[in-house]
Every structure is written in structure tokens, then in C-alpha cells.
């Protein structure tokens, strides 16, 4: 049954016009009233087009309006038309309302994530195809010859594909159509994606996996709201295990959503999925072409796509019948969207599962402290995998104390680490040098006068990117050619790079290991998802000896020959004043070291650190996860940080510092008094200037049970309004404190 018809159609009455409230995809919270033209039937959730100012927009009927204000009758506009797509179901509309309310985002902007985007929502456009049929042209050119060679098989091809394959412009194709050499025909509509086969290749599960597999199947076949934390060490087979919940849901004919923090991960994942289910899953992320986006959206809404793997935005898609959600690497901070609608996809996925009354699985080797506490309190069911598949040992971890055995000045790889890498390469194994810093060096200065190169519109040093020969701001993207002269004292050849980035490490690795094949993996060097997939493939197949990478390589990948990871600066994330710094460092290092020894079982991780006695380093070396969580949970409880308390931050920015500061003070002054809530600040943000805007922050801290969103809404309703170029951003449950 189509559940969205529960409210029925909006009844026609003879006298008053029929009016409905329609949510438009712009930054507005409330729905607008529109008249339903005679002869049209609409239901809540229906996707329509409406006039909005001078434009026509795709919008969604949110509710009937049985008693519209009679004074409005003459001013209401008509709905222009209905789109031939399934209505957004109650479940999704409830989620949209919920997320908007919780994050204090305009409802129209949240809803927009479900439509994404209007212009592609119509029926799939028919693509013109061409086929060789007539006489060869009278005048032959090299381009025409290439095109005819491509089409010589007589098959129908999309015009754009034919041009691309032959390396010719669309004009060349059109020319041959005009001459009658080629004929055009519409391309047939693309068929629905083939369904995954739940029984295609069920693996043999090990004894230690079996209990988890049974739990997965049970949870999927119960099909009710339930949160499971699939807590398994790296290499324990979490993916194979949760695939059984996927299989069970597919057998029941319902859809599955698998969220991943990073689309870089979806390449290997697609292949693993295909090995298990015989077909690839449908993908949803920002790199899809508009055409694939439209096609995938339609397949999801029609229920033709059974399994969708995607980035966080896939959470808001209009699934016809979602039956299970899986959040892979649930602790990853990439699940938090930090602009526009600021939402945490993991948390909102739990809300969606609750609204839809379906199970959700959170998978991680290092759960977030929030999820760990929920599991300890019994709110989430813990399903544990405590050993690696195939009896492989977990990697051993050793510390390299940079105070005693560090490299020489200007070098970053310690002698001991270098020695171990030599041994690994001699054994024909791979090594990974991990440094979470893009570029060549984080700072450039003049040896003569001490001048440091900073961004002109951000409070940030420019990062030297030698591969591109530019200095780049990591906050606004500003870049300039690397100068040869100091702009301050005019000295020549006086600029020095301070500190390492991955590009500089590659230079050092090339000097230390001249015969090794190295590859740098860093998000800024990726030109397309396809090239990245092929690079990851080169690594997996052993065509690289030393991988040098940022966090891009830390996650999820399975590189069979990798047995050694050297963390170049294990302290990097610890000192930034973020309440989750220790947790993030623990997770990231655990995850990157977890890439090793996955097939041969003798992985080893070396942590280069200045703080060998830090609790995070000690817990890692001892392999004592419990110790880490125990001390971290105790600290959060003591200080009232999440999940024992709640946080929100208000970021106030303006083109000049005094306006930002004075508005932040006015705002703080009118905060309603509530003894369960503390308002801290305003303080200048750690990143005090971004893109020419000066930033101040207020941090709001409350007890766990408090409706913080409600408090913020009341506060902002009575606060002075932002004027001019003042801007106020609200971040509920902030992950970034910069
Ligand atoms: P995790 O996500 O927990 O790090 P993976 O799911 O990537 O672990 O599994 C690690 C490796 O072990 C993968 O190559 C996977 O295919 C393999 N594996 C896990 N369980 C099984 C199984 N039951 N049968 C065959 N291979 C398995
Ligand atoms: Zn900048």
C-alpha cells in the first residue's frame, strides 16, 4: 500500500478555493499557500511546480489548508503542475521537519536535499542516438574517418558517446547526419538497475563471526526500529558481516542505504559488493554526472534501486521503501556537514530509522564516544567482532620518541623508521607513511627578514604546494605562484619551507629509498574519482612500494601487501583545543595502522611522537582500547561534554571586527536565563578571519536532557536581527571548534 495516501486527497469543496501549503526549496521555514486548480488532485508529499516571484520552482505539497484566510483568496497563485514522480512519503516529510527543527535550518533548505535538484526531476529526457546507414560522405576528413570507424559496427550509439569515442566534436556528427551518412533515432530508456542477488556468494563465516551474522540476520528480519553497534577490530570482516543484514533486507524486497564517510571508499566497496551480490549497488554522491543523478534519483524513488551506497546526502533521498540503514565508519567526522544545513548524518540517520521504524547498524573499529556510551548503557545493542578474520594478528604498535631518536634537522623520517622501511621493501612488502597534511610545507618564510606568507583574507599561513608550484590557502582556496623573491625585503632565493607535508615527505623518501616506487595520495592531487580508483588499484595490486598519504588512505582500504605504517607526526591532532582531539587521534591512528597486516598478519605501526607518555599513545601501544574509552568517558562526564552534556555554537561574522564583536556581545546579553544552560563567550574564533570575515563564537552548553534547539530558537526570536553584512550561523552539536 502506498502509505503516503494516508491523509487522502485534499477534498474539493464547491465554494472556497482549494488551498494547500507548499514548501518551496529556498531558505524559508514556513510553507506558502497555493490554490489547487480545478481538475487537479493533489496529496501531501506530491511534487509540484509553482510560481515563486518571477520563477517557476519545483516544490512539495506539505499539508492541506482547510481554512485559508479568506482575505488571501484573491491573492493566491495557482499550482502550475504536478510532476510525474512518487510523492515524498510521510516518513521523509517528518524527517525533514525534524531536522529543520533540530538544526534550526529553514525547512525549505532541508527539503531541497531530498529533491536535488528540480530541473532533473521530470521524466528522463530522451537522448538522441546515431547509427551508420547511408552512403559515405563526399568529402572525407580525418575526424569523419574516425567517427565512421567507431560507428562501422552499425550499432546505435548516443550522439555524445559517439563523438567522445571518436574524439570529435558534436558538429562532426551533425554534419554526417545532414549528409545522410548517419541517421538519428531516440536512444531507448535506460533499464532499471539489475537487482542484487542475496544468495549470489554467501561466504563461509568463521566461528567468531557467526554470532554477529546471526544477530545481523535477526535484526533485519525483525525489521523494526533498533540500533546496533557493529563493533569490530580492523580486518574482522565487518563488511562481510553487515552484508548479511543487507541480504536479508533485499530478500524481503525492501531498500537498503549504506552510508560511507568518503566517496573515495566506494570504489573497492563496489567490487566487494558485486562479489557478494553479483551486481553493483547504486551510487549517490557529489561526483555523479547530472544525468546519472537524475536516473539514480528516479530509480530510488520508484523503488527500482534496492541498495544505495552513498555519502551523507543520500540520507535525504525519497526511498520508496527503506528497510535498513548502515553507517560505515560511524565515528567519522566527515558525517557532519559544516555548511548550509549543519547536520550530523549518523545522528539524523538514527532519527530516520526511528521515524521509519526500521533497523540501523553503526559499524566501526573505534566507535565514537557517543555511540560507545549508548552501547554501555544498553541503548544500542553491541555486536562485537574481537579478532581479525583468518586468525591474523592485529598490528603491533611501537613508539619512536622524537626527543631521543628523531631525524636530523629538516628531515622527518627517523633513522629507525627508515631502517624498517628498507627491510619491508626488501621483503617485497609495502610501507605507508602517514601524515595528515596536504602540500609540501605548512609555512613558508623568508630567511632574511622573517616574513611569513599568509593569506590576505584569512587568518592562515599559505601552504606550499610544490607539485602545482603555488602557495595555497586551505581555508578559502586563494593561491599564488611560488615567489622567487621575498615581497618584504626583496631578498632573492631566501624562502624556506617550514615543516612537512606529504609532498615534502615524498622528496625525503626518494632520497632515502632511491629505488622504491612511491605514490602520494592526497585529496588535492585527485583530478577525478576514476583516476583515484585506478591509483588505489595500483596500490592494492602491488605496483607501489611506499604510499605517502593523508587521511584519504586511512579509511577502509584493503591493501594486501601493506605490513608497515609509519605515522610521521602522531601528535598532530592533539593540540588544537578541540574537546574531541584525543578521541579523533585515537581513532585516526588506530584506523591507519589497521591498514597493515590484513593478509599476512604481521602488521606493525610506528608512531613518531614527542609525547610518548600521552594516554592516547599509551593506550595504542598497549592495544588497550578499554583504557582509552574509560579515561575519555570519565573526562567527558566530569566536564559535562557530549554525550553527558550538549553543545551548540553560534558563529557571528562580519566584514569588520568591531561589528562582529559588538553583535556577539549584544546577542550574549539577551540570552535567556536558565540554570541548566551556560553561555560561554563571546570569544574570537580560533580561525579569527576567513574569507575576509571576522569571526566570534558563543558556546552554549547544557545538561543532556535539555531541549537546546528550543532554547536557541526562543533566544534568537528575541535577539537583535542581523543587519548589513553581519551573519549568524547556528551549529547544534558542533564537531568543529575553529
Ligand atoms: P573490516 O571492515 O572489519 O576492517 P573487512 O570487512 O574489510 O574488515 O574484512 C577484512 C578482509 O577479510 C576482507 O578482505 C574480507 O573480504 C575478508 N573476510 C572477512 N570475513 C570473511 C569471510 N567470512 N570469508 C572470506 N573472507 C572474509
Ligand atoms: Zn584564505
UniProtKB/TrEMBL annotation:
What GO molecular functions are on record for this protein? Answer: 3'-5' DNA helicase activity; ATP binding; ATP hydrolysis activity; DNA binding; zinc ion binding
The record's annotation in Gene3D superfamilies points to: P-loop containing nucleotide triphosphate hydrolases, PriA, 3(prime) DNA-binding domain
InterPro entries per record: DEAD/DEAH_box_helicase_dom, Helicase_ATP-bd, Helicase_C-like, P-loop_NTPase, PriA, PriA_3primeBD, PriA_3primeBD_sf, PriA_C
Functional summary from the UniProt entry: Initiates the restart of stalled replication forks, which reloads the replicative helicase on sites other than the origin of replication. Recognizes and binds to abandoned replication forks and remodels them to uncover a helicase loading site. Promotes assembly of the primosome at these replication forks.
Encoding gene per record: priA
Q: What is its EC number?
A: 5.6.2.4
User: What is the name attached to this protein's record?
Assistant: Replication restart protein PriA
Q: State its cofactor.
A: Zn(2+)
Which reaction is catalysed here? Answer: ATP + H2O = ADP + phosphate + H(+); Couples ATP hydrolysis with the unwinding of duplex DNA by translocating in the 3'-5' direction
Q: Which organism is it from?
A: Nitrobacter winogradskyi (strain ATCC 25391 / DSM 10237 / CIP 104748 / NCIMB 11846 / Nb-255)
The reply on keyword DNA-binding is: yes
Amino acid at each position: 500500500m502506498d502509505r503516503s495516501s494516508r491523509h487522502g486527497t485534499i477534498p474539493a469543496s464547491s465554494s472556497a478555493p482549494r488551498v494547500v501549503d507548499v514548501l518551496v526549496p529556498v531558505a524559508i521555514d514556513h510553507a506558502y499557500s497555493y490554490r489547487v486548480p480545478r481538475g487537479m488532485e493533489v496529496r501531501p508529499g506530491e511534487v509540484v511546480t509553482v510560481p515563486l516571484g518571477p520563477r517557476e520552482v519545483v516544490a512539495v505539497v506539505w499539508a492541506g489548508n482547510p481554512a485559508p484566510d479568506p482575505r488571501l483568496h484573491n491573492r493566491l497563485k495557482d499550482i502550475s503542475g504536478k510532476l510525474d514522480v512518487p510523492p515524498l512519503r510521510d516518513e521523509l516529510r517528518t524527517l525533514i521537519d525534524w531536522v529543520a527543527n533540530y538544526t534550526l535550518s529553514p525547512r525549505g533548505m532541508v527539503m531541497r536535499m531530498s529533491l536535488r535538484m528540480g530541473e532533473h526531476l521530470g521524466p528522463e529526457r530522451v537522448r538522441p542516438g546515431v547509427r551508420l546507414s547511408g552512403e559515405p560522405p563526399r568529402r572525407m576528413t580525418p575526424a569523419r574517418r574516425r567517427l565512421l570507424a567507431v560507428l562501422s559496427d552499425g550499432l546505435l550509439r548516443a550522439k555524445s558517446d559517439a563523438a567522445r569515442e571518436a574524439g570529435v566534436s558534436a558538429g562532426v556528427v551533425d554534419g554526417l547526419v545532414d549528409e545522410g551518412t548517419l541517421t538519428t533515432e531516440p536512444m531507448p530508456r535506460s533499464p532499471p538497475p539489475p537487482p542484487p542477488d542475496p544468495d549470489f556468494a554467501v561466504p563461509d563465516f568463521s566461528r567468531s563471526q557467526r554470532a554477529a551474522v546471526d544477530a545481523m540476520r535477526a535484526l533485519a528480519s525483525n525489521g523494526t526500529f533498533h540500533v546496533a553497534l557493529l563493533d569490530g577490530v580492523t580486518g574482522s570482516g565487518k563488511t562481510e558481516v553487515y552484508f548479511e543484514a543487507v541480504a536479508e533486507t533485499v530478500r524481503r524486497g525492501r531498500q537498503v542505504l549504506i552510508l560511507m564517510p568518503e566517496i573515495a571508499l566506494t570504489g573497492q566497496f563496489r567490487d566487494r559488493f558485486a562479489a557478494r551480490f553479483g551486481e553493483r549497488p547504486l551510487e549517490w554522491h557529489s561526483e555523479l554526472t547530472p544525468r546519472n543523478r537524475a536516473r539514480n534519483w528516479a530509480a530510488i524513488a520508484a523503488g527500482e534501486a534496492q541498495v544505495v551506497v552513498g555519502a551523507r546526502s543520500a540520507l535525504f533521498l525519497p526511498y520508496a521503501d527503506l528497510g535498513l540503514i548502515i553507517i560505515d565508519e560511524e565515528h567519522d567526522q566527515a558525517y557532519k556537514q559544516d555548511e548550509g544545513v549543519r547536520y550530523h548524518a549518523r545522528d539524523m540517520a538514527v532519527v530516520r530509522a526511528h521515524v521509519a521504524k526500521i533497523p540501523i547498524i553503526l559499524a566501526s573499529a573505534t566507535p565514537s564516544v557517543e555511540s560507545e556510551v549508548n552501547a554501555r548503557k544498553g541503548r544500542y545493542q553491541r555486536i562485537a567482532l574481537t579478532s581479525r578474520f583468518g586468525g591474523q594478528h592485529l598490528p603491533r604498535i611501537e613508539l619512536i620518541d622524537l626527543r631521543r631518536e628523531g631525524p636530523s634537522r629538516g628531515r622527518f623520517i627517523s633513522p629507525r623508521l627508515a631502517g624498517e622501511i628498507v627491510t619491508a621493501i626488501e621483503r617485497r612488502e609495502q610501507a605507508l607513511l602517514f601524515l595528515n597534511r596536504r602540500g609540501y610545507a605548512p609555512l613558508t618564510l623568508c630567511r632574511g627578514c622573517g616574513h611569513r606568507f599568509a593569506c590576505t583574507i584569512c587568518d592562515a599561513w599559505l601552504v606550499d604546494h610544490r607539485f602545482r608550484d603555488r602557495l595555497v590557502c586551505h581555508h578559502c582556496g586563494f593561491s599564488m605562484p611560488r615567489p622567487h623573491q621575498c615581497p618584504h625585503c626583496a631578498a632573492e632565493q631566501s624562502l624556506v619551507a617550514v615543516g612537512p607535508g606529504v609532498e615534502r615527505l615524498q622528496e625525503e623518501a626518494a632520497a632515502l629509498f632511491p629505488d622504491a616506487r612511491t605514490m602520494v595520495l592526497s585529496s588535492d592531487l585527485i583530478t577525478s574519482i576514476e583516476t583515484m580508483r585506478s591509483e588505489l588499484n595500483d596500490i592494492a595490486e602491488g605496483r607501489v612500494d611506499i604510499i605517502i598519504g593523508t587521511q584519504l588512505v586511512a579509511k577502509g582500504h584493503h591493501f594486501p601487501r601493506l605490513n608497515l605504517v609509519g605515522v610521521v607526526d602522531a601528535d598532530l591532532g592533539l593540540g588544537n583545543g578541540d574537546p574531541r582531539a584525543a578521541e579523533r587521534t585515537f581513532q585516526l591512528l588506530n584506523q591507519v595502522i589497521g591498514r597493515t597486516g590484513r593478509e599476512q598478519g604481521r602488521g606493525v605501526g610506528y608512531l613518531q611522537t614527542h609525547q610518548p607518555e600521552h594516554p592516547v599513545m599509551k593506550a595504542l601501544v598497549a592495544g588497550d582500547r578499554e583504557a582509552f574509552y574509560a579515561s575519555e568517558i570519565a573526562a567527558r562526564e566530569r566536564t559535562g561534554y557530549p554525550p553527558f552534556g550538549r553543545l551548540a555554537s553560534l558563529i557571528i561574522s562580519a566584514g569588520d571586527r568591531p561589528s562582529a564583536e559588538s553583535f556577539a556581545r549584544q546577542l550574549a546579553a539577551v540570552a535567556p536565563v536558565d540554570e541548566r544552560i551556560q553561555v560561554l563567550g563571546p570569544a574570537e574564533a580560533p580561525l579569527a578571519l576567513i574569507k575576509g570575515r571576522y569571526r566570534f563564537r558563543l558556546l552554549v552548553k547544557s545538561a543532556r536532557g535539555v531541549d537546546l534547539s528550543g532554547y536557541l530558537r526562543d533566544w534568537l526570536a528575541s535577539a537583535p536581527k542581523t543587519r548589513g553584512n553581519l551573519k549568524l550561523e547556528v551549529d547544534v552539536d558542533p564537531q568543529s571548534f575553529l
